[in-house]
Design goal:
The complex is a heterotrimer of chains A (about 130), B (about 550) and C (about 325). Chain A contains five helices and five strands; from the N terminus they run E-H-E-H-E-H-E-H-E-H. Chain A has about 130 residues and is an alpha/beta fold. Chain A has a five-stranded parallel sheet, sandwiched between helices. With about 550 residues, chain B is α/β, with parallel strands linked by helices. Chain B is built from 21 helices and ten strands. In chain B, helix 6 links the parallel strand 4 and strand 5. The longest helix of chain B has 23 residues. Classes of the chains: A alpha/beta (about 130), B alpha/beta (about 550), C alpha/beta (about 325). Chains A and B meet through helix 1 and helix 3 of A and helix 17 of B. Bound molecules: cobalamin (B12), guanosine-5'-diphosphate (GDP) and magnesium ion. Guanosine-5'-diphosphate (GDP) sits at the interface of chains C and B.
């Protein structure tokens, strides 16, 4: 693991809620990470391609529109198809507790609710990537 | 004044400072919710620059600081208008009728994201999104179901629709025709505010220029055909929710308003022909007193601008009428019942600020779409304010408070500074293209996040008085099969209609787009024959191109 | 990490991406790979794009690349943004401006942070160019924010250097490094829809004339564009092609490659020396002690350094 953690923050689907995604992107930058943000209305293909080309260590999906149960499985599948399943995938936004188990089964390691402090997310990433 | 000044200084030195020196204060610095400094005390000394008749005046009189109507809530309460919509048109229709039965006085339609972005339910991009966060509308058939048994001459309807506003307005008119309701009797609002989509809300389709043209087409059409329709709801709500502070909300909203007025003037419309139908939409945040002052400042600012800058002559052109929604972003996933109290405070600010209509958020805001139970408590909160608190019985009761008046005045000044800056950048459309507005909002949003994380800004249940979280059980779920059903229904409509007619309508729309003719007319003709929103927007996408947000 | 050279040569995106990471993050381990690639690879044509932040570089790059791929080229973009001096982190925001080309199968976009190599071009960039060239990208665009040194650095690498300016940059322009004025092969006045564009055009023309009154045979063009509206892009594409052609016919291409390689060799040498000698020295606990001695005037810095150098000498 390099000391420069590279993260892709992505907004899948039609969801326009980007306040959280932008706050997280900036927060991770200030925690020393290199953050690529690709903007709104990203298709699952776009997200996976960006993750592959940028060779990120972490993909952070932000979604508040409720479409996660459709979009997340697609992203996880395409990551696998593209051999990019060595990446840490985390997510945040409005994702009801009831859906967490299913998403974790897909391989999404962390799901963060409204009100989560950024340093909690930073710590989680460090822990998962095994860096101090 | 000299005596007062002396008295104040004596009080400050002998009483205030001494006590503060001995016992200190709770904080080193007191600030409003928008980080503006707050003094220990306000007095007539703070009102020296304010002239009652020029700057405040009586309700219903320029500059309308105390309210746009002479009687305000003594003759009629504000419209209680809860934003609702999910799933199919049929389900939403049921929710609407439930709300009307329970004392709601106006409707407010939430559309799903495909509808708001001009995609039919069977479009590739719509997958997983149909009916999720609002009602799915593809064709007039859905709109007929949505308003089934709701007499359109009796209710006023607000539609949160922007980029494809013409299409939904046309469908509404077509439903009214089928109900036998005359156009003159239709009352309601379309949001139709594209500029704030680029900066805060995200459901844009076309680039700014053609979008502004679609908007002025609507202004023009309505000034001739729909006299009681509010053609736009210039929205600060979303700007604030995206993270701005109160001054930015005020300034950016008014700046958007100025841009719309300029656009309409540029196609040769007379200011007094459309300005009376402009309406506004603000946020009710937590800092109660600052919010009341903000609403009052907004009225004064708009009135002054309309008169001084645009030479409006009709009184109505200068009146800022507005809807308020309580701040969703202030509501927490943690200890959700606390949100009921927050909403009550926010709603009270809106009422004391003289709002014309109000949506109160539900306590499950940060968990999902409101359940019926939660939505009812939110509505009852308005009923309690209206019927039990007494605040609606006299007009603008906080006027004359030294703090409120001084803050109202300051907010006007601070907003004007922003307006000057935007003017220097070439107006709001340019400022948005350059990313200036977006960056200002992002900066505020980030600073707020930091303030919450450091504890400087307290959010009960989140960074103070925390408990182990347990989520409330009941969350509204949208049926995942709905998408299939909706697509199937659309397919049936497509196969039932006359395809030559459809082609012709789309061609007419394309021609109007190319030849700069008012698009409302061909769009209305098309929706009557069940041409879908996706089909219409596709033609416009081809002619106008699509906007890509590139600011970061 | 093992990287399959054949997969790089076959243009496999994931392998290429991994190779770039290796080059960026674990330079020591990357050398075997780079050695092998170098001998099998012709370096791509390199277009450097630089200018002030927000000037429209990314927007222009998108338009240029889009036209190139339309005419059948495979193109890669290396978009470089500054690392924060405080946190070391970076917001890599160029990709968002290249949405249209990001999905094109013949385009590869890679965002990189400067990582504090402000005093000289990060050697990883040259090596990234090598990897991308090996993968079959015939043209590579490097975008850097031009505030000072970076502008010059990019010039030292690119075949063609495009300097983007905007009407608002009036005052800044006056203080542009002379070196930049000399090194830019093409100047773009973007955002020429803005009111003060004409004034700026005059200033720029004058500066360009002053800067290169040499006899090189290349007349630096000034192209006015409105990137967001695709205005002037056709002209720009033609001028770039003209410069590329000029390099080829005038044999300057080779000169340029020599210059680039000389720079790269120096960079590698510096990097190697630093890793082999200086880094271990800095980590050595005696280092602090030596600093103290110099501070306490028990020793002068010159003697100290020459002692170190002769220590290295044993190994050199
Ligand atoms: C602000 C807001 C808006 C703003 C958005 C402004 C913007 N540019 O972002 C506005 C007013 C425009 C808006 C509009 C709409 N909204 Co809204 N909105 C909210 C609100 C109130 C707060 C969201 C927010 O920004 N919070 C502040 C940020 C900082 O928090 P956050 O995003 O949750 O992020 C935190 C965590 O979730 C996590 N996180 C988030 N993303 C990520 C990513 C990663 C990688 C990680 C690690 C962590 C992480 O970390 C962050 C920091 O703690 C929520 C309700 C709520 N209180 O949560 C509703 C809400 C999300 N909206 C909702 C809806 C329905 C809409 C609309 C679709 C309504 C409609 N039909 O038109 C529209 C359309 C928007 C669109 N284009 O998609 C619903 C969604 C319902 C659902 N999913 O079932 C909600 C839940 C409200 C509700 N109960 O009805 N909205
Ligand atoms: N008005 C105008 N805006 C432009 C033009 N070119 C780019 N922009 C805008 O300027 C901003 C910055 O552009 P970007 O390409 O990110 O600049 P960079 O930082 O130099 O890469 C974006 O909002 C672009 O849309 C132009 O020619 N005219
Ligand atoms: Mg850029």
């Amino acid at each position: 693991m390099s000391e420069n953690i590279k993260v892709l923050i992505a907004k899948p689907g039609l969801d326009g809620h980007d306040r959280g995604a932008k706050v997280i992107a900036r927060g991770l930058k200030e925690a020393g990470m290199e953050v690529v943000y690709t903007g709104l209305r990203q298709t699952t293909e776009q997200i996976v391609r960006a993750a592959v080309q940028e060779d990120v260590d972490v993909i952070g999906l932000s979604i508040l529109s409720g479409a996660h149960s459709h979009l997340f499985p697609e992203i996880m599948k395409k990551l696998k198809d593209n051999g990019k399943d060595d990446v840490l995938v985390i997510a945040g936004g409005i994702i009801p507790d009831d859906d967490h188990a299913e998403l974790k089964d897909l391989g999404i390691k962390g799901i963060f609710k409204p009100g989560t402090p950024i340093n909690e997310i930073v710590e989680f990433i460090h822990q998962e990537l095994d860096v101090a | 004044m000299a005596d007062l000044e002396k008295g104040f200084q004596e009080w400050k030195e002998n009483k205030l400072d001494k006590t503060v020196n001995n016992y200190g204060e709770r904080k080193d610095e007191f600030k409003t919710g928008s980080n503006r400094p707050v003094k220990a005390l306000y007095s007539p000394l703070d009102l020296e620059d304010i002239d009652y008749l020029d700057d405040i005046n009586f309700p219903g009189q320029f500059p309308y600081t105390r309210g746009v109507y002479p009687t305000m809530y003594r003759s009629r309460l504000w419209t209680m208008r809860q934003y609702a919509g999910f799933g199919t048109a049929k389900e939403t229709n049921e929710r609407f009728r439930y709300l009307l039965d329970h004392g709601q006085t106006g409707l407010s339609v939430a559309f799903d994201l495909p509808t708001q972005i001009g995609y039919d339910s069977d479009h590739e991009m719509s997958k997983g999104e149909v009916g999720r966060v609002g009602v799915a509308i593809d064709t007039l058939a859905d709109m007929e179901t949505l308003f089934d048994q709701i007499p359109l001459d009796k209710v006023s309807t607000s539609m949160t629709i922007n980029a494809p506003a013409s299409v939904l307005l046309a469908m509404y008119i077509a439903v009214a025709e089928k109900q036998g309701v005359e156009k003159e009797k239709l009352s309601g609002t379309i949001q139709n505010d594209i500029l704030k989509e680029y900066i805060a809300r995200g459901t844009y389709i076309f680039p700014p220029e053609p979008s502004l043209r679609l908007i002025t087409d609507i202004f023009e059409y309505c000034s001739q055909e729909l006299p009681s329709w509010n053609t736009i709801s210039i929205s600060g709500y979303h700007i604030r929710e995206a993270g701005s502070d109160a001054v930015q909300e005020l300034a950016f909203t008014i700046a958007d308003g100025i841009e719309y007025v300029e656009s309409a003037l540029s196609i040769g419309m007379d200011v007094d022909s459309f300005a009376p139908r402009l309406s506004f939409f603000f946020n009710g945040q937590m800092d109660f007193l600052e919010e009341v002052a903000k609403f009052r400042a907004a009225r004064r600012l708009w009135a002054e601008i309309m008169k001084e800058r645009f030479g409006a002559e009709k009184a109505k052109s200068c009146m800022l009428r507005f809807h308020t929604q309580t701040a969703g972003a202030a509501l927490t996933a943690q200890q959700p019942q606390n949100n009921i109290v927050r909403v009550a405070i926010q709603a009270l600010a809106a009422v004391l600020g003289g709002t014309q209509s109000l949506h109160t958020n539900s306590f499950d805001e940060a968990l999902g779409l409101p359940t019926e139970e939660a939505a009812k408590i939110a509505l009852r909160t308005q009923h309690i304010i209206a019927e039990e608190s007494g605040v609606a019985d006299t007009i603008d009761p906080l006027a004359g408070s030294y703090y409120i008046e001084s803050m109202t005045d300051k907010l006007v000044d601070e907003a004007r500074e922003y307006l000057d800056e935007i003017e220097e950048l070439g107006g709001m459309a340019e400022a948005i293209k350059a990313g200036y507005v977006q960056r200002e909002i992002q900066e505020s949003a980030y600073q707020e996040q930091k303030a919450v994380e450091s504890g400087e800004k307290v959010v009960v249940g989140v960074n103070k008085y925390k408990e182990d979280s347990k989520e409330i059980g009941d969350i509204l779920k949208v049926d995942p099969n709905l998408e299939k059903d909706q697509c199937q229904q659309l397919a049936e409509i497509r196969s039932d209609r006359d395809s030559d007619k459809t082609e012709k309508h789309l061609k007419d729309i394309r021609n109007a787009a190319i030849n700069d003719e008012n698009l409302m007319y061909p769009i209305l003709d098309a929706v009557r024959d069940y041409v879908s929103i996706g089909e219409i927007c596709q033609v416009l996408r081809e002619e106008f191109g699509e906007y890509e947000a590139k600011i970061f | 990490m093992k990287i399959d050279v054949d997969k790089i040569l076959a243009g496999d995106e994931k392998t290429v991406a991994k190779a770039i990471s290796l080059v960026e993050n674990s330079r020591g381990e990357a050398f075997d790979l780079l050695r092998e690639l170098y001998l099998k690879t012709n370096l791509a044509y390199l277009l450097g794009v630089t200018g002030p932040p927000g000037g429209g570089k990314s927007t222009l790059v998108e338009k240029i690349v889009s036209r190139w791929v339309d005419s059948g080229e495979k193109v890669a973009v290396i978009a470089i943004d500054p690392s924060s001096e405080f946190s070391g982190g970076a917001l890599l925001g160029d990709r968002i401006r290249m949405g249209k080309i990001a999905t094109h199968p013949d385009v590869f976009i890679r965002s990189m942070a400067t990582r504090g190599y402000l005093g000289g071009l990060n050697p990883a960039i040259f090596d990234t160019v090598l990897v991308l060239s090996a993968a079959g990208y015939e043209r590579i665009v490097i975008e850097t924010v031009g505030v000072g040194q970076n502008e010059i650095d990019i010039v030292s690498l690119a075949d063609t250097t495009l300097v983007v300016t905007v009407p608002e940059a009036g005052d800044e322009i006056q203080s542009f490094k002379a070196g930049l004025m000399e090194a830019g092969d093409l100047f773009v006045l973007n955002k020429s829809d803005h009111a003060t564009a004409h004034k700026m055009e005059l200033i720029l023309k004058q500066m360009i004339d002053l800067a290169r009154s040499d006899d090189s045979g290349w007349k630096i063009p000034l192209i006015k564009t409105i990137a967001t509206e695709e205005d002037g892009i056709g002209d720009l594409i033609e001028e770039i092609a003209a410069h590329k052609n000029y390099l080829e016919v005038s044999n300057l291409e080779l000169d340029n490659k020599k210059k680039v390689m000389k720079n790269h060799l120096i960079h590698l040498l510096e990097e190697g020396l630093r890793n082999k000698y200086i880094e271990p020295l800095l980590k050595d606990k005696d280092f602090d002690h030596s600093v103290d001695e110099v501070i306490e005037r028990k020793k002068d810095p010159y003697t100290q350094v020459s002692e170190w150098l002769s220590d290295f000498g044993e190994g050199v």
